[in-house]
């Protein structure tokens, strides 16, 4: 019997850099399960779980949820998909989270979307999401077929409370202070792969080529 080799990847980048958009494309081509910390937290907030109630005030203020809360939540989810290759989006966001993740799993690659802050700000005010699936739209870049309606389910789209300009500014500052050191952490481990640019459509072919060298494309015609 051939042992199955699991591939564990993380996608990083400032808020609005395109992590969700690129992740959607990655999972269309490669057999990776996508786990987004933001989507998971929003589901918890909506369902008013214990974690959701704690997380809500931090998210609304553009602050990170405490390390112990998010780390427990994510590791619990990852253990549920232990037999699968995965792509983790939005976690880790602090060095302490990265160290906790390292203790539990070996990370093969970290994809870093390096998009200038100036480019990001305008994108987020035009972002609309379908909360149940995590599908992401943009009124200019990838509008839904019908305004404010999800293409696949026909359900309403929403704008995130934390995509207001003043909250975005806070989130970007938080990224600089707390998350940038995580890039250095992974750089030192030799697993960081940075993709720089201002447009997802130009960044994507490079991300695709990088992954294709490591994984079979399951969507190839
Ligand atoms: N104008 C523009 N918008 C983009 C581009 N790539 C993604 N977006 C939109 O920018 C917003 C943020 O992207 P998202 O994937 O949610 O970023 P994340 O916060 O890193 O997960 C969404 O509304 C996307 O549809 C791009 O190249 N140009
Ligand atoms: N790893 C994490 N650590 C702490 N807080 C997190 C983490 N992931 C998500 N959050 C919280 O959820 C919010 C939304 O996250 P996310 O959807 O990933 O935003 P974006 O895609 O715009 O970067 C963050 O601003 C933060 O409050």
TrEMBL record:
The keyword Nucleotide-binding applies. AMP binds at residues 37, 42, 63-65, 90-93, 97, 160, 171. Keywords: GTP-binding, Kinase, Mitochondrion, Nucleotide-binding, Transferase. It catalyses: a ribonucleoside 5'-triphosphate + AMP = a ribonucleoside 5'-diphosphate + ADP; GTP + AMP = GDP + ADP. InterPro entries: Adenyl_kin_sub (IPR006259), Adenylat/UMP-CMP_kin (IPR000850), Adenylat_kinase_CS (IPR033690), Adenylate_kinase_lid-dom (IPR007862), AK3/Ak4_mitochondrial (IPR028586), P-loop_NTPase (IPR027417). One of its GO terms (molecular function) is AMP kinase activity. Residues 127-162 form the Adenylate kinase active site lid domain. Its main location: mitochondrion. It is an enzyme of class 2 (transferase). Transmembrane segments: none annotated. Residues 36-65 are annotated as: NMPbind. Its EC number is 2.7.4.10. One of its GO terms (cellular component) is mitochondrial matrix. Residues 126-163 are annotated as: LID. It is found in: Mitochondrion matrix. GO terms for biological process: ADP biosynthetic process; AMP metabolic process; GTP metabolic process; ITP metabolic process; nucleoside triphosphate biosynthetic process. GTP binds at residues 16-21, 127, 136-137, 200. Monomer. Involved in maintaining the homeostasis of cellular nucleotides by catalyzing the interconversion of nucleoside phosphates. Has GTP:AMP phosphotransferase and ITP:AMP phosphotransferase activities. Consists of three domains, a large central CORE domain and two small peripheral domains, NMPbind and LID, which undergo movements during catalysis. The LID domain closes over the site of phosphoryl transfer upon GTP binding. Assembling and dissambling the active center during each catalytic cycle provides an effective means to prevent GTP hydrolysis. Belongs to the adenylate kinase family. AK3 subfamily. This is GTP:AMP phosphotransferase AK3, mitochondrial. It comes from Xenopus laevis.
């Amino acid at each position: 019997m051939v042992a199955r080799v699991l591939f564990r990847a993380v996608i990083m980048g400032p808020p609005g850099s395109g992590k969700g958009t690129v992740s959607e494309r990655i999972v269309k081509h490669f057999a990776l399960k996508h786990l987004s910390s933001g989507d998971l937290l929003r589901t918890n907030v909506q369902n008013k779980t214990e974690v959701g109630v704690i997380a809500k005030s931090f998210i609304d203020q553009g602050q990170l949820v405490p390390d112990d809360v998010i780390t427990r939540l994510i590791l619990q989810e990852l253990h549920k998909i232990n037999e699968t290759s995965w792509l983790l989006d939005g976690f880790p966001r602090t060095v302490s989270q990265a160290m906790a993740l390292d203790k539990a799993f070996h990370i093969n690659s970290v994809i870093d979307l390096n998009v200038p802050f100036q480019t990001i700000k305008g994108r987020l005010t035009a972002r609309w999401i379908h909360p149940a699936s995590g599908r992401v739209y943009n009124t200019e870049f990838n509008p839904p077929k019908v305004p404010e309606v999800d293409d696949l389910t026909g359900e309403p789209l929403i704008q995130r409370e934390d995509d207001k300009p003043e909250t975005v500014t806070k989130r970007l500052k938080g990224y600089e202070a707390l998350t940038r050191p995580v890039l250095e952490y992974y750089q030192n481990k030799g697993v960081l792969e940075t993709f720089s640019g201002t447009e997802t459509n130009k960044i994507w072919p490079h991300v695709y080529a990088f992954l294709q060298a490591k994984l079979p494309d399951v969507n190839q015609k």
